[in-house]
Structures are given as structure tokens and as C-alpha cells.
Specification:
By secondary structure, the protein is of the alpha/beta class. It has nine helices and seven strands. Helix content is 42%, strand content 15%. It is globular, with a radius of gyration of 18 Å.
Length: 237
């Protein structure tokens, strides 16, 4: 069935969020991790965009492992993709992991955008790991390894995923699993790539299970192990 959503943003409580309030809320506190999915609230509002950027930078400065998913909701973005892309890229500079779907990237950079090139750009901006999801086609993770003065971009892809009627469920589950790679991303070495591939395979498997049944009902650890024992989510790259 076709699923439709409605979002209401003007005069909503989140519009009261400011950078000053963020800094006051974070004062004297520390976090081990911070993840924000921004599509439903958008970065269009200048005050909110400033607040979220302040949050990410403060959390990262305090030692948090940070991840960001723009989670684009195109009908809500009236200012156009170019301006919105600039704000997404500013946040990408302040996070460890940036995740986006192929549809998100095509909205930001145009239909048929080179996903590999965009991922490479986000790494250059400062992200340590970029994950691009492709719904039922799987996902790819991009990380720079220390080879030469500028490093090389390595790509780990999981391109086998069972057919899925809800690509957004796949995206959300992979997004939630991306921070598992924190230790491996920190090492930024070729030796970490097999582990990154295993993390990505688990994320894709979890997403496939979730969208195979009604509701947002992710698998238990036992269910996930059973799926991985019978389905080979093979790594490429």
C-alpha cells in the first residue's frame, strides 16, 4: 500500500531551539555518543541549523562519537536543494559518521549524482566514515585509510539484500547500526576493513528482517544470528 506522511513544522516546539539553549543544556554534561536524524525537523530554519551545528561541535569536543543522518523529507524543503546541501555539508564537517540514502544524495546533488564522489567529498569535509544506503540493493561504507599524505578512500559494499518493500526501514536500521564501527573508524587502517564489512553486513541483515514484517520491529540478537547463518551478505570491495 502507498504510505503517505504529513509534517507540520511552523509554530512547533522544536522551532524554539537555539544555539544558546543547546550550549546551556550541554554545560557540565558529557555524552559517549550523539546521533541526530534531521529530516523530520529539517535544517531549513537558520536558528535550528545553527543550534544543531553547535550541538554536534560541542558534543564532539567533549569526546562524543557523533553520527548524522540528513533523512531528507523533500516536500518540507521549500528553499531548494542547493541551500540545504550547504547546511548538510556544514554538519558533515562536525561528525564522525555521516549516513545518507541514495535518494537523499540525489536530492542534494541532482538526479544521477555520483554516490562514490559525494561520499569522497564528505570524507574530505571531515567525516571519518560515510555510509550510503540503497534500499533493497544494500549499502556501501567509505573510509579513508592512511596511505600517502592525503590517504586513500576505501569502499566496503554489501550489495546483497532480500527484496524489501520499505526502503526507508532499511535506511533507518543501517543508520542505527553505523556507530558500531566506532573503534574501527578510529584506527583508519586497512586491517579494520574486514570488521567494517562485518558491521555493514549485520546492519543490512537487521534492516532486511525489519522490513519483512509489519511495523518498526527490528530483530533480536538471536534472530539476527539465525539470518546471518543462512544468508550470505557478502562483502564487496
Amino acid at each position: 500500500a502507498d504510505v503517505r506522511y504529513a509534517f507540520f513544522k511552523e509554530n512547533a516546539a522544536d522551532r524554539a531551539l537555539t544555539a544558546d539553549r543547546v550550549m546551556k543544556a550541554l554545560s557540565g554534561r558529557s555524552f559517549g555518543a550523539a546521533h541526530v536524524s534531521l529530516g523530520a525537523v529539517t535544517l531549513e530554519d537558520a536558528s535550528m541549523a545553527e543550534a544543531f551545528e553547535a550541538f554536534f561541535r560541542a558534543a564532539k569536543a567533549g569526546g562524543a562519537f557523533t553520527s548524522f543522518d540528513p533523512n531528507i523529507r523533500q516536500p518540507m524543503i521549500v528553499g531548494g536543494s542547493e541551500a540545504y546541501r550547504g547546511r548538510v555539508e556544514r554538519l558533515t564537517q562536525a561528525v564522525d559518521v555521516a549516513k545518507a540514502s541514495d535518494a537523499d544524495i540525489e536530492f542534494l546533488y541532482g538526479e544521477g549524482a555520483d554516490l562514490d564522489a559525494v561520499a569522497g567529498r564528505w570524507l574530505d569535509l571531515g567525516a571519518r566514515l560515510v555510509v550510503v544506503t540503497r534500499g533493497p540493493k544494500g549499502a556501501s561504507a567509505y573510509v579513508k585509510v592512511a596511505r600517502g599524505p592525503d590517504g586513500d578512500t576505501e569502499v566496503v559494499s554489501i550489495r546483497k539484500a532480500p527484496p524489501c518493500s520499505d526502503a526507508q526501514t532499511v535506511d533507518s536500521e543501517v543508520s542505527g547500526a553505523a556507530p558500531w564501527a566506532e573503534a574501527e573508524v578510529g584506527s583508519a587502517a586497512s586491517a579494520s576493513l574486514p570488521r567494517l564489512g562485518a558491521v555493514l553486513a549485520r546492519a543490512v541483515a537487521a534492516a532486511a528482517v525489519t522490513c519483512s514484517r509489519p511495523g518498526a520491529d527490528p530483530p533480536t540478537a538471536e534472530e539476527l544470528e539465525r539470518v546471518l547463518s543462512v544468508v550470505n551478505f557478502a562483502r564487496e570491495g
